[in-house]
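lol ok so funny story. i was supposed to be doing the assay writeup but got distracted and ended up predicting the structure for this chain instead. priorities right. anyway since i did it might as well share w the group, maybe its usefull for someone
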Amino acid sequence: MGCTSCSSGGLPAGCKNNGACGVSGCNKLEVFDWLAGMELPNGQRPFDIIEVRFKNSRKAFYRCPSDLELHIGEVIAVEASPGHDIGVVSLTGELVKFQLRKKGVRDNSEIRKVYRKAHEEDLSKWQEARQLEQDTMLKARKISADNGLVMKISDVEYQGDKSRATFYYTAEDRVDFRELIRHFADAFKVRIEMRQIGSRQEASRLGGIGTCGRELCCSTWLTDFRSVSTSAARYQQLALNPQKLAGQCGKLKCCLNYELDSYAEAVRDFPAPNTKLFTELGPAVQFKTDIFKKMVWFIYEDYRAGSSPIGLSLSAVNEIIELNKQNKKPKDLKDFLIQVEEEEEEEFYSNVVGQDSLNRFDTKPKKKKRKKPAQRTVADTGVTQQTPNPQNRDSGSDNRPPRNPEAGAALQGPKPQGQPGGSRPQGQRPQAAPGPKQQNQNPGQSPHEPRPPRPPRDEQGPNPQGPKSQEQHPTGPRPNRPNRNRGRRPDNTNDNQPAS
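and the output, tada:
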């Protein structure tokens, strides 16, 4: 009765459909058989001991008969006392030898035997027993509460033949449950066994999702529970907040020990937390340490020397410590910030796996500064002309560079005769030397020909739209208005004169 829906090559390979094929809990304490594809030497028989999983977090080793070939994922009937139990094969082959050595189990006569592969009758009785576990646990909690016992029944496990039920409970003190067993035997009509477990074992049996978003380690792959202390959090510079450091079981998280050795080895290169750096401005104490960037932040004890932390590289800190040992004091810690700026160039390669921060969208991106207007040069005269900004055209501001008198004389040409000061006649403009590229040229005009002079306003001729009729204005012709300079106040105005 193997799992053929997720097997490869026609052989059962374990359930990967989350129990859809009838074998639930296939992802609990699974082991990857990395020796499965290797062939045994000629004449050597496969190892006769297999590993069997029962329900959630219980595993045991059984001896397989020589005439029975088993694969991972098959449901089998094994020896129990009394009767038999139903389990799922979790590991076979040579890898079981490593598991025996890891668990400290000896290969002797105490290892129980495998009876057979489970039949249809065994499977039906096993499924009925699994369905009774939830109702049995609720009734058992009510009976224990009526007897006034301070205990919590967290799980119930029936044997495969429904002849025995094991109750797992947690309690702070020792509980006398001799009277409770009698009530359980009368209520459920099975053989009763009580087992006290800890908080972590309870979490491993029930399972759940941790704060990291994944399944609990204790319910998937972790089998040995080592002691976790708050010193592990101090080494990793974590806030000693019980709500964040505690797991589903209420104890400190087991994952605090995973990287503890790496942190303890990295901290050896850093100075002690009580190290002081002596400068001419005063002593500075350690403020913060970043192991990954190898930086240490210091702050002056005297607030007049500076109240903001100063980040220094580890090499700079060691250099200052060596100077202090020689009775030398640097002038200021900020003189060593140059080394930090050079090391910040490597931050571009720090995020090589694309681990972006979750709050990267909280801050708005900075606006790009507008570029300055482009400059163009006249090849003949070497004068730099700046393109005026159209936004400042109406405001009256002039962004043109100061005029060069020599270049201006070259642009204007010789002064006309008969006029004092070289003033040009009305309606004429000085002709600029043609550059490499002229803008706003007429289609029929050559780029090297000078622009014709513009006639005065009086000589332009009649209005192309025709004279304006006085009938358009019911009040008569529009009066002549004085020419007002933009952005300037008329000189003949008097602020003290009352408005008429």
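Residues 169 and 196 are 5 Å apart (CA to CA). The chain has a mean pLDDT of 75.
back to the writeup now i swear
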